[in-house]
Design a protein that fits this description.
- Pfam families: Glyoxalase.
- Keywords: Metal-binding.
- Residues 2-125 form the VOC domain.
- This is VOC family protein.
- The chain is an alpha/beta fold.
- It has two domains: 1-59, 2,3-Dihydroxybiphenyl 1,2-Dioxygenase, domain 1 (Roll), CATH 3.10.180.10; 72-125, Roll (2,3-Dihydroxybiphenyl 1,2-Dioxygenase, domain 1), CATH 3.10.180.
- The protein has helices at 13-23, 82-91, and strands at 6-10, 27-34, 39-46, 49-56, 75-79, 100-101, 108-113, 119-124.
- It has a four-stranded mixed β-sheet, with helices on one face. The protein has a four-stranded mixed β-sheet with strand order 5-8-7-6, covered by helices on one side.
- A hairpin with a 4-residue loop joins strand 2 (27-34) and strand 3 (39-46).
- The longest helix has 11 residues, at 13-23.
- The protein is globular.
- It starts with 5 loop residues before the first strand and ends with a strand.
Length: 125
């Protein structure tokens, strides 16, 4: 029917929480500390639409390589204007790639990354 959410395990919970809420502007829907797992679980949304579960775990393994390792390649967010979003993220200290053109749709997009080097794409709708 649809994708319910995407789960991300981060290496530094406070850094990633700040990144996804303060830099990207996602809303905190729920935050729970699970004592038995020594883990935070942070539910994040775009508006009230639940999109990301951010987890912390003690000593998670690092991502093997970027971005062509097996598994999730990147997360893509729809934006109204990639030029505006790119400039906004640069002003917040992110290193953003140059804007590209999708060869199939003709739409503009660019990549940056989260604090754990997870590739993030911003795609103009």
């Amino acid at each position: 029917m649809k994708i319910h959410h995407i789960a991300i395990i981060c290496s530094d919970y406070e850094v990633s929480k700040n990144f996804y809420t303060e830099i990207l502007g996602l809303n905190i829907l729920r935050e729970v500390y699970r004592e038995e797992r020594q883990s935070y679980k942070l539910d994040l949304g775009i508006g009230d639409h639940y999109v990301i579960e951010l987890f912390s775990f003690p000593n998670p393994p690092e991502r093997p390589s970027r971005p062509e390792s097996c598994g999730l390649r990147h997360l893509a967010f729809s934006v109204k204007n990639v030029n505006v979003k790119r400039e906004e993220l640069i002003q917040k200290g992110l290193n953003c790639e140059e804007i590209r053109i999708d060869e199939f749709t003709g739409r503009e997009f660019f990549f940056t990354q989260d604090p754990d080097q997870l590739p993030l794409e911003f795609y103009e709708e």
